[in-house]
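Risk register update: the risk of archive-format incompatibility is retired. Evidence:
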Amino acid sequence: MESAKPLKNLTIEMILSSIRTIVESCITLDLDCRDPPASTTSLLKSLGYNPYQIKRFWEDIERVNHRVLVLYKFGSSEFGLKFIIDEGPIYEVVVKDKIVPLDENDAKKIETYLFAPKGRRLFLRLSGGSGGYIDINLIRILLLVERSSPGVLSSLINSIDEYLKFGRSEKLKEMTLQMFHNFKDILSLVLPAIPDNLELLLRLIPLLRKLS
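Archived output:
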C-alpha cells in the first residue's frame, strides 16, 4: 500500500462532518447506502463551510488521492483507508437542509433527488487483505455499525474530535478497543488478530501507536 500523508485538522473535521451527515441521512431515509461519496462540494457548502475552506479541503485531499492510510497491520495482513477523488455523476437529496450525496440506486428510490452530470466526489474505501482482498465503501460499513449499535458513530467521531482539538487520545483508544470487543465475531472473520488490551491494540493499529 502507498501510504497517505497526514491531513490537516480542518480537512479531517470536514470529512467527519460529511460522514456523520451521510450516515444519519441513510438511517433517516432507510437507505442501503452501499456506495455513496463520502463528501462533495454541495454537502460541504450545506454544512456551512466557506468557499476558501472547501478549496483548501480539495487541495489537501488531492495530496492523498489513491493513497492509503494504514489502520491495521499484523504480519503480512494490512488494512487501510483509501482516498479516491474522481469526477462523475452526482446524485443528491436534501435532508434537514443538508445536501446529501447518495449512490444511484438509493437516489432513484427518492422522487425528489437532485442530479448533476459531473462533479467532484470523494470516496473513502476500507481496503486490504489477509489471504485475499477486500474493498468496501466506508460509509456502508459505518452505517451497518450504527444500525447495530446506535450512537457508536457519534462516540467515535467525538473521540477523534477531542484528539484534534485538545491532543487527548485516551478516549479514542478506549473507543477503538471497545469497538473491537463489540464486533469481535464479525471482525475475526477478516482480521487475523483481535486486540483485547491496550498494548495489543497499539501494536496492531499504527495510527494509534503514533498518538501515544
